[in-house]
Design brief:
alpha/beta; Alpha-Beta Plaits; 5-stranded antiparallel beta sheet
Amino acid sequence: MRPVRIPDDLALPDASGTIVLVVLDGVGGLPDPESGLTELESARTPNLDALASRSSLGMLLPVAPGVTAGSGPGHLALFGYDPVEHVIGRGVLSALGVGFELRLGDVAVRLNLATLDEAGRVVDRRAGRPSDEEGRRVVEKVRAALPAGEGLGEGVELFLVHEKDHRVVMVLRGEGLEAAVSDTDPQEVGVAPHPAEALEPGSATTAELFSRFDVRLREVLADEGRINGVLARGFARYETFPSLEARFRLSGVAVARYPMYRGVSRLVGMDADATPESDEEAVAALEERFGSYDFHFLHFKAPDALGEDGDFAGKVQSLEEIDRLIPRLAALRPSALVVTGDHSTPARMRAHSWHHVPLLIHSDRTRPTGEAFREDVCRTGELGVVRGCDLMSLALAHAGRLAKFGA
């Protein structure tokens, strides 16, 4: 007899409970040396605190103890997919996020437009965070110089699509391409980009194609000044994933300002047509779609971006601004309202970290356990520490969408 898969085999096919998952990207932090408080503990969040007083609280472990989660694995876990079992690189997520029609076997990679000095060392990994207009202009310039990757390799096509700000998606299409290629982004300034190296013999062609592209791109952008190079992250070969509908009997919709998060949502079968320009527009888009889907994913990016910039005060302010939108989400009265993050991004570290993330679940099936949505309070909540990929079980249960296990 095949063992029961939990929660997949317990998901009720005819249940009507609705779930709203609110992801405060990078919400977790570390205490400020002077105040002893994290960014979330420092923020004035009366609406989240009021919600917390009526909710079950806990802490989320995104992947595993000591493991720092990238945004892709972090979100896959929140959607109920073990990110160790379901591995996907950032390139595919970004490509899906911009609506690129990937084919099975395509290799995609996320590029950062970057600034290099005369010696080829990284001066700015994000090229001063150019506007979308400027980013698109540079991408068009490179595409015009390398139409479909002309001259890179026989039988290989290359596609470049601007994603957002300094982010660009590159897709390689051809027979037998593999994606076990190392990132070229050194994740620091003052050093040269790493070479693209094949991590397995079958990926040697992909590594060579990227290296040729990188040389040509630097030639094309030599007169650009600030945007004169790229850094590659997340080489990935496109394969299909089982959908939320197939696994959990959920129709899903995603509302996210940044394409990568729309991409990871599309990977698991969610609709992700909304492209809001502000957090207020994102909430309005969710309000418009609420009731037409079972599972609603809403993403807020600012806490993560400001954490990576090392801007403690800015991250505090971003959380306060998000808090003002919370009453509109609560007013929808979903069967289960979940608020958490995909990982921590402490401003003190200027990077993602492995630290646990605060978690809140509100429904008419919860046992209220705290008075505020903060790390110090969530650590004592009844949910305890929840693995990221187990969150879906809790969300389904609180929405009345899971059957009893056994007789």
